Amino acid sequence: MAAPVYLGLVHYPIYNKNNEIITTAITNFDIHDIARTARTYDLLKYFIIHPLDSQKALAEEIINYWQDGYGGQYNPDRKEALSIVEVIPDIAAAVEYITARDGAKPLIVTTDARKYANTVSYGRLRREITDTGRPCLLLFGTGWGMENSVMEQFDYILEPIYGPGSYNHLPVRAAAAIILDRLLGETWWEND
Q1: Where is the tRNA (guanine-N(1)-)-methyltransferase C-terminal domain (predicted)?
Q2: Confidence (pTM)
């Protein structure tokens, strides 16, 4: 049986294009699109990780509209996707939630466009998720990526995603979809 997998979208501490540490804003697209992708790949929870009360209130207003307001009646599929979204203040709160729910500290994995000493391949992490049963928290940064000392605390950093050309600046929503498919999607290559 596959391990329980969670996703977190981190808004602080994040680098901006000038390499300064900032807090990024929550976007409506990130709430909806990542929730739909996470639900498609059967994740247990999608954490929107943001420390500011004003941004948390904005996200919760959007989520509530699709859970309890007219949005949920109009589009039940969207309601189901957003049912797994939770807004929390920091990464530690996500780890605490998972540890309490699953009885084990999650394997914490993030992504980056660069390689590190603890960079892991998709195949290896896919096997670890499938074979160990240990919960896994996949963290995605916003802006120009998570602050380095935070990333150093994680168990693994997934290898970069490359296209066929030299341009490499995927939106986080697209990166999340590609990565979830590589880690949890059907084994389509075995059917050729």
Answers
A1: 5-185
A2: 0.95
